[in-house]
Amino acid sequence: MGIGGLIEIDPKKISRNNIPPQLSIRQLLVDDKLYPLGIKHVIPPGNHRYIFEYSVLSFTAPEKNNIKFRLVGYDKDWIVSKGEQRAFYTGLEPGQYRFEVVGSNNDGVWATLPALYVFEVAPMYHQTLWFKGLIFLIFFAGIWAFIRWRTQTARAANLKLEKQVAQRTAELQTSLENLTATQKQLIQSEKMASLGELTAGIAHEIQNPLNFVNNFSEVSKELLVEMKDELAVGNVQLANEIASDVEQNLEKIHHHGKRADAIVKSMLQHSQRSTGLKEPTDINALCDEYLRLAYHGLRAKDNSFNAAYSTNFDTSIGLVNVMPQEIGRVLLNLINNAFYAVAEKSKTAGPDYQPAVSIATRKMDNQVEITVSDNGNGIPEAIREKIFQPFFTTKPTGQGTGLGLSLSYDIVKAHGGELKVETEEGVGTKFIIQLPIS
């Protein structure tokens, strides 16, 4: 009922509200401190509590308005307001932020542009560029100091290595001079059956370690030059690796120098005349002593080595006039070779193989016979005639001088006896010593 009469309202004729709501962000409170609008504020660092108050104005009932907000830099998606026109945040990381609010009226018409509030949270001191730069400078200074220290250490090590190389070179020169003098003695030795063969054997045997020494010396010199170049450009890691290589080369030089020294001593021992006198000797006791000495000596070097050994002595032999140290040297050589033979075979034989070495004596008319036997691989037929030649050996380089059997043969001959060998490939070897009793 109106002033002029009845008023008729047709719901179908009511027009749609196309006017979007007015948006506004009223204020920002940080720990109850007001940060007014219109200024880009820088919030000091810390774990603050942020409260954004906003409003959406429309000519409709407020409860019918739709409202969404988000904090760009923190929220991934829009957050639908639950009716309270406030947004709460805590623990914002340092950085740039933008708070946005959008809304719609009751007819679903949304505002085209959101209301904005831009601000910044300042970083802590340790998160600032100047602090990071300071840390970088300190770190760089530490690296520089470390590199300088390592360079000085490497330079000192280089000088030490140069002195060691010079010292080793002088020692090798002395060894070479000694080898030359020894060779002259060997040429004049009555024990050598063939002068030409002996000289060739000496040259070949000495040349091997000397070649190693010369090669490793040259390589070490080149490595030292390379190490200096790397140190000059500050490549300390590669310089240290080169220094390790030089150290390994020096160890090899030392090893082959010892090898040459062993050859010299063996040659001197082989060529020298014995001044010992023959004396009554218990051959059985001598054999037993050197059998045990050889076995325990090998066990001391390699505790994994194991072999059975046995004796079979003729008690009727009695005492025999010999030089016990010389015959003991022969026995030691033969027994060591026997143990070496069975050890080599055990590396390839099956689990049923039992390495064994035995020594036996017997009296024959005016002779005593000593037999050293093994069940090793035997001696190939192609090299049987060479086994008593000086410097001939089947052992790997560095494990034998090739003078053991030659020296043993000469000692037995000097006693007026014979040294023979009986062997069968794959079965074993026997070395037989025959010595006169009187």
What can you tell me about this protein's structure?
With 438 residues, the protein is α+β, with helices and mostly antiparallel strands. The chain has three domains: 19-127, Sandwich (Immunoglobulin-like); 145-271, no CATH class; 279-436, Heat Shock Protein 90 (2-Layer Sandwich), CATH 3.30.565.10. The protein is 43% helix and 23% strand. It has helices at residues 129-187, 195-232, 236-271, 283-301, 324-348, 404-414, and strands at 22-30, 33-35, 41-43, 49-57, 66-72, 79-80, 86-90, 95-104, 115-121, 279-282, 308-312, 319-322, 356-364, 367-374, 418-424, 428-436. Strands 3-9-8-5-6 form a five-stranded mixed sheet, with no helix packed on it. Strand 13 and strand 14 (367-374) form a beta hairpin. Mean pLDDT is 80; it is low at 186-201.
Task: For this entry, give a set of tags.
438 residues, alpha+beta, Immunoglobulin-like, Heat Shock Protein 90, 5-stranded mixed β-sheet, 6 helices, 43% helix, 23% strand, elongated
